[in-house]
Amino acid sequence: MTRRIKIAMMASASLLLLGSCGGSEPDDNQVVDASDTLEEDFDVDLFESPEIDYHLPSPLQVASIFKKSGLEYNTGVTNSADNSGNYNDELSQHLNFGVYSADMAYCVLNEQANEGRIYLGVISTLAAEIGMEAVFANEDLMDRFELNIEDKDSIEILMIDIHERTEEYMEENDMQHQSAVHFAGAWTEGMYLGVYDYEHNGSKEGLGAQITEQMAILGNIIKGLKDPRNDGMELGWVITELENIQSTFDAFASVSAYYEDESADELTLSDEEYSSLGELIKALRSKITNG
User: Fold this and answer.
1) pTM over 0.85
2) What is the rounded distance in angstroms from the CA atom of residue 208 to the CA atom of residue 188?
3) pLDDT in single tens digits along all 291 residues of the chain
4) How far apart (Å, rounded) are the C-alpha atoms in residues 30 and 26?
5) Integer CA distances (angstroms), 231 to 178, 243, 275, in order
6) Is the dihedral of CA 189, 190, 196, 199 positive or negative?
7) Are 211 and 41 in contact (CB under 8 A)?
8) Burial annotation 18-30 (CB, 10 A radius, 16+ → b, else e)
9) Bridge-partner residues for 42, per DSSP?
10) Which of 28, 59, 138, 151 is the most buried (most CB within 10 A)?
């Protein structure tokens, strides 16, 4: 199976800073037109990891994939901030750092700034628990959030800055391998939010396709989790759950049919297949967030 699925990822203009700011401090006064979008085509093999190790998007990018399909904001669906005190072991702290990062992105993209501010505080606390307190030690992050709380574009830029600081810190401290653990949590939460919206809101057009797009990222997450430097985190059950999700998806009849039809432009799962995939996602998310 060598055919590749082309993913069209729509990113707001602010997301372009993710690859261009080079670790420099974003300008709080920078004007960003969120209505401008850029379509980037990515060829991602659904069944083999790309050659680039651990090449993973940010939680904000993941949330934007679903947002473009009309995913609605659902109150009370994100992982409650009250649960953060339950994560006392290293693995649950790393995974839920990713979960809460995705929740913050979900809130910000849906203009729920007050909720986003709460999640910023939660991920700051978890960062301290997992040895990344320096990323959030500077109070300017919270100050900038408060100052720009009514400006969605500025908050998005702040989130990009947080991601940049995190990546830079992990690189400087030889912790890059742990980013796959964070992203396993962020990916699971993003998929969970998409599945919830798919199941509970009337219009399903487009959202299913975004769920399918997210599956193209999964192989790289699994590859990153298997990095030998992560052996001390007891990731076996997480890898097993994600591999089960991947193999279940690969075995769907619609996936096979897609690869057999050279003229097919888009992969769409049946309702039964979406339901089966959704149950696996919800089960994994429950295990992660229940600590």
Assistant:
1) no
2) 16
3) 333 333 332 222 222 222 223 333 444 443 333 333 333 333 333 333 333 344 455 666 666 666 666 677 888 999 999 999 999 999 999 999 999 999 988 888 888 888 988 998 899 899 999 888 887 776 677 777 778 777 777 777 877 887 787 888 888 888 878 888 999 999 999 899 888 888 887 565 666 667 777 887 898 899 999 989 888 889 999 999 999 999 999 999 988 898 888 887 777 788 899 899 999 999 999 999 997
4) 8
5) 11, 17, 33
6) negative
7) no
8) beeeeeeebeeee
9) 7
10) 59
Amino acid at 63: A
Question: Token pair of 154, please?
Answer: 């500025």
